[in-house]
Amino acid sequence: MQILILCGGLAARLMPITKNIPKSMVLIGKKPFLEHQIKLLKKNGISDIVLCIGHKGVQIEKYFGNGRKFGVNIQYGKDGKKLLGTGGAIKKAEKLLQDDFLIIYGDSYLPFNFQKAIKFFKKNNKLGMMTVFKNKNKYEPSNVEVEGKLVKHYAKNLPAGWQAKKMEYIDYGLSIFKKETLKYIPKNKFYDLSKLHSLLIKNKELLAYPAEKRFYQIGSFEGLEEFKRYIKK
Question: Which among 106, 74, 114 has a CA at the least distance from the CA of 8?
């Protein structure tokens, strides 16, 4: 299945590291973070990639090109001068997308079995799926309530220390959508992906797939250092 990686944000939390480079190009060892992501995807049998780029995105395009050097095929969706948010960036890349596609964030590293998640999605015939991890507020505030196979509630960007008894899970950072869901996203307007998640939840169309291993992210200095230690191991 095709995958879209969202790597067009401003990465304000990693300033001044990201003053002159996009977050996906932050070096981990001697390789950009995005190269570690692509290596993981290829290992999981995923080689058809769309990169949604924005802030300093020309550096990503110059380094990765069409992906052949890394054993994958890469296409590019571009925000242009106007930042469109995560959902808006996906809508802008609509013509590049297949009928079903995965989405991950450009600062997330997800060590789990992608193919099992894809099989779960295809078997249960819903418009979308969110991978979740039973976090219990351990790494970040839990923000997802699961009921059976479906996401019942989802709240993005919760404050530190926030807790709700029914929200034991956290958004793991991987979603799968049918292309027809993009009809809900307006063209050339700022739109956050969480709005699409919420719409599908309301319509009982968002599956919840539980991941067993924790995720890693480089969206903060703490997460960046933790991922560096993980990769060294």
Answer: 106
CB 104 within 8 A of CB 174: yes
Distances (CA, A) of 77 to 5, 131, 147, 167, 229: 10, 24, 35, 34, 32
Measured CA to CA, the distance from residue 114 to residue 110 in angstroms comes to 9
152, two tokens = 């019942």
pLDDT tens digit string along 119-158?
A: 999 999 999 999 999 876 676 778 898 999 999 989 875 5
Residue keyed to tokens 């959902």: 87
Parallel, antiparallel or unpaired: strands 2-7 and 48-53: parallel
Query: What's the predicted TM-score (pTM) here?
Result: 0.90
User: What are the phi and psi torsion angles at 151 (to 5°)?
Assistant: -80, 125
Of 132, 230, 119, 134, the residue nearest 173 (C-alpha): 132
> What digits encode the pLDDT tens for the residues 62-96?
999 999 999 999 999 987 777 888 999 999 999 99
Tokens of 138: 């351990």
How far is residue 21's CA from residue 59's CA, in Å, rounded to a whole number? Answer: 7
